[in-house]
Known about the structure:
The chain is about 70% helix and about 0% strand. The protein has helices spanning about 1-10, 15-40, 45-70, 75-95, 110-115, 115-120, 125-135, 150-180. The chain is elongated, with a radius of gyration of 26 Å. It starts with a helix and ends with a helix.
Amino acid sequence: MILGLRIHDVRFQTQASIAADCLLLLAIATLGVSAIIEHDRFVRPSALVSLFWSATALLSIAKVRTAWLIAPDEGVSAASTALCILLGFAVVLQVYRKPVPGISEKHSDSIESQSNFWERVAFAWLLETLRTGYNRILSPEDLPMLDAKLCSNILHQGLQSTWTPSMHCRFRTWRLQANEW
């Protein structure tokens, strides 16, 4: 609809505006379908898709302002505003954490691994722990589960497998230097 309105009004056309609007429409349609499929199959939404929706919604605010300044009484301005609101709605839907059936929050993967991009950037996944710690002294049961990749036995095995070969090389070097004296 916006594309059709922009084609008919010369004030909204530049050399690249129609091509940019076509590419934006294609990107929104493609990522919209991708986000729906992703929301059905994965616990955590994609960071790249979240960034796209956020950047597109933020940048569309400038386009809406420009449309209202150029022609406040035209349909392009209202359609641009509606598109901006829909993009904001897409951002909200993208960051919404869906409940996963059969997984309780305390006995599942870590809360961090289920958090969306903006929750991880702002450390919002820690808010419940911080709120509990503000109200009373934390106990081990109050702490969220760690990601399985961060458990100490897995990290210890990785460190040991990396450390052991390098230590053997250092001991050989030290022995050679000691024998030279």
